[in-house]
């Protein structure tokens, strides 16, 4: 299962977010059930970032979302948002990368 989360940051907190992300990215990436994650940044609007993560199952994502790790991250970064976060849980319909 792939999870996409769009975060729109207040301009004055973009660097705060990136700095904080660098302190937690390895912990998130190593969380049980997480197959890997990326932080993507919009090329034209630096305050828009996306987390892209792949999970073994919906249950694994839910365990992360209810974990102490998530509880320690979310309140910090949430205060830097300019808009409410948007999130989608997706499944692969077609994967052209796997056939290249």
Automatic annotation (TrEMBL):
Start and end residues of each ABM domain: 1-92
Lineage: Bacteria, Pseudomonadati, Bacteroidota, Flavobacteriia, Flavobacteriales
Record InterPro entries: ABM_dom, Dimeric_a/b-barrel
Keyword Oxidoreductase recorded: yes
Keyword Cytoplasm attached: no
Protein name, UniProt field: Antibiotic biosynthesis monooxygenase
GO molecular function, one term: monooxygenase activity
Keywords in alphabetical order: Monooxygenase, Oxidoreductase
């Amino acid at each position: 299962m792939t999870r996409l989360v769009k975060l729109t940051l207040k301009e004055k907190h973009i660097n705060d977010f990136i700095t904080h992300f660098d302190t937690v990215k390895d912990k998130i990436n190593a969380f049980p059930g997480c197959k890997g994650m990326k932080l993507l940044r919009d090329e034209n609007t630096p305050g828009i970032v996306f987390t892209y993560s792949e999970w073994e199952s919906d249950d694994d994502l839910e365990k992360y979302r209810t974990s102490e790790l998530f509880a320690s991250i979310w309140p910090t970064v949430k205060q830097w948002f300019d808009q409410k976060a948007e999130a989608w849980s997706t499944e692969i319909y077609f994967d052209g990368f796997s056939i290249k």
